[in-house]
Amino acid sequence: MAGTLAEKVWEAHVVRRAEGEPDLLYIDLHLLHEVTSPQAFDGLRLEGRTVRRTDLTLATEDHNVPTTPGPITDLISLTQVETLRRNCAEFGVPLYPMGDVEQGIVHVVGPQLGLTQPGMTIVCGDSHTSTHGAFGALAFGIGTSEVEHVLATQTLPLKPFRTMAVNVRGALPDGVTAKDVVLAVIAKIGTGGGQGYVLEYRGDAIESLSMEARMTVCNMSIEAGARAGMIAPDDTTFDYLKGRDRAPVGADWDAAVEAWRQLRSDDDAVFDAEVDLDATTLSPFVTWGTNPGQGLPLSASVPDPDRIVDETERADTERALAYMGLEPGTPLREIPVDTVFVGSCTNGRIEDLRAAADVLRGRRVAEGVRMLVVPGSARVRVQAEAEGLHSVFEAAGAEWRLPGCSMCLAMNPDKLAAGERSASTSNRNFEGRQGPGGRTHLVSPLVAAATAVRGTLSSPADLDKD
Amino acid sequence: MDAFTTHTGIGVPLRRSNVDTDQIIPAVYLKRVTRDGFEDGLFAAWRTDESFVLNNPRYAAGSVLVAGPDFGTGSSREHAVWALMNYGFRAVLSSRFADIFRGNSGKQGLLTAQVAQDDIELIWKYLEQEPGAQVTVDLAARTVTAGDIVAPFSVDDYTRWRLMEGLDDIGLTLRHDDLIAQFEADRPAYLPVTS
Fold first, then answer.
1. Is B104 touching A (CB cutoff 8 A)?
2. Do A80 and B31 touch (CB under 8 A)?
3. Model pLDDT, residue A1
């Protein structure tokens, strides 16, 4: 029977199938961080259970870590990180702690090590695990009880997901990036539109993307409510993987590539839903509201609730505008920001930093604007410094930081103050996400950098006009 | 996990859609390493607003939350479920739940009952007219009762069975240890390891 990519990966991992019960699925890689794991280890301890496959489990410290030099000063953050260290030592789980050259955001670390490979099942107690789907892996976020379940059994009982094809066809115009594509997808299908689905991104616009750009797209699948996002592996994928630390070598590499080439949806496969997007019509996209579906092209204006017929949507819009402190009809380009954040598991990879640096080279961050550039991992930081990107950021007046989740979520010292407004390359513009009362506009690294220079939401094309 | 068959408690009308888990419990409250004590973080930002429903003493002891569509979106944090349960909630009613939140709830014994939005509207009106009124959620019959309103709800059979039996997932899976070992023996050699 013809199958989709997601169905093929699923079928290859079924340990047990029984009528009326969820499938028991084998998990190839389990990633851990300090926030969602302590209670899971505690559960194991209470039941006298062990970690079944420490060799398929990897932990890193990311959410709580400060991005300035020095130890963690917040005592509760420190407890959480120390608890992870103690748990990993007790149960024999490999850990990359702060200061280690392999440390970084969990979804940056897996791919750069070559641990994330096509056809695998990958889970983490973190909704942005969907990132790894860029390699054709079935990767999804789980809760802490499920973390405990995977630690104990290396499996999860799951009901099959539905499949949705997201076809993005045509060539992306200059200055339009993966971030703009995925924000446009979310605005089109809504924050609940992907609920219960694995999204498979397809079409020539997707095929033309680099691995890093594909990770940005898959990363934000969860913001459309989807369990996972996937892209069929191709030569771009194999070229990225070849030679990485944990990628197969020799005969194993050949066997792997042969298997990976089978990982694509059959021509006659039927998806439960399909969505089409014309890449040629896309432009830089920004959010104006308090969920990632509330986005518009940068050339648009803040929406007017009075023009919205649907009562719930109108109330949502009014609420979002009140929180964001925005007036209907204001051109998005005229919205001033206090802070620009480049980083996170969405846009904290080397290509993202290169893109931001290219815009900033020879320019200055606007007066009164604070810009943070936070590499997604220690390796990204090392690479960026080898390329001299840090000098570009510092010369422009931006702050060059140590790796971590940083301002994506207000769990470490990097936060917005109440009423402050940011242009952020992260993934969530929820109320208070970047700090209580903080206001977030989600943008691409190119828009972030141009916004830092002009002080209002802008694209690099606006700089050329100045 | 305690078995869940039927629950009656004060209904709390939460007239909001897209209640993401950052609203249910902001990240700053996620730093504990235990499963209890999260009630102070529940809806922390909204509770600073005097008009927020849980600040009304008539609703404060609520245990059945009646919410708008797309409840529990965003972050996978199970702390959202712990916060709701630590506060005293045993059931949430909504026309649509985010997948991860619903999964997490099922593991902890918090019932996520999917109720048609039209019925949610009726229950909201009833609870607003009669603050402190009780709502009964009957998992065996799959109905929710509030005053004269009797509405059906959906919940998948497997989750319902596990909730009603109070079963531990890990214990169930470990019964199939032999199948897991057999699967492991057949995994391709090229797959990576972390250590």
1. yes
2. yes
3. 64
